[in-house]
Write a structure and sequence with these properties.
Layout: H1 2-6, H2 9-25, E1 28-36, E2 39-46, H3 52-70, H4 82-103, H5 110-133
Antiparallel strand pairs: 1-2
Helix pairs in contact: 2-3, 2-5, 3-4, 4-5
Length: about 150
């Protein structure tokens, strides 16, 4: 627990927000109820339907990556820095959560709204963290001239 408290506020938001997003992914993002006489039928769909599957899987990948960074495990992915991978994962989570939010526009339920807000907060915190860590885009090689 001490390792978590030593993290920057932005890193704590990314980790905590990722856990919240994972929990929210299992709640109904769409929910509808129909009543006919004394019979009532309810149904719903969580984020794990359609494009939301990709958003939920990216949350898991982001949490694993952040856990590896927390444990100081060195993972080499070419010239990409760990901070750049973190911010890229957070931005992808936000992008696909926004897409899943708009995809599930019929009978939208409160977890979809909370998930959207949390995903955007996580992305903003990851951007601030990356800026604080001095993360820069890798240099692109110039194409060969003819």
């Amino acid at each position: 627990m001490d390792a978590l408290m030593k993290l920057s506020r932005e890193a704590q938001i990314v980790l905590g927000g990722g856990v919240v997003l994972l929990i929210l992914s299992f709640l109904d993002w769409q929910q509808a109820s129909y009543s006919v006489g004394i019979v009532s039928v309810s149904g719903g769909a969580n984020e794990w339907h359609g494009i939301g599957i990709l958003a939920a899987l990216l949350v898991i990948v982001m949490l694993v990556w952040e856990g590896l960074r927390l444990l100081a495990v060195k993972v080499e992915l070419g010239s990409l820095s760990p901070g750049l991978i973190s911010v890229a994962l957070a931005l992808l989570v936000a992008l696909f959560t926004v897409i899943a939010f708009f995809d599930k526009s019929t009978a939208r339920h409160w977890p979809a709204w909370i998930g959207l807000i949390v995903a955007l907060v996580v992305a903003a915190a990851a951007l601030m963290r990356a800026r604080g860590e001095g993360v820069q885009m890798p240099a692109m090689k110039a194409p060969p001239s003819s």
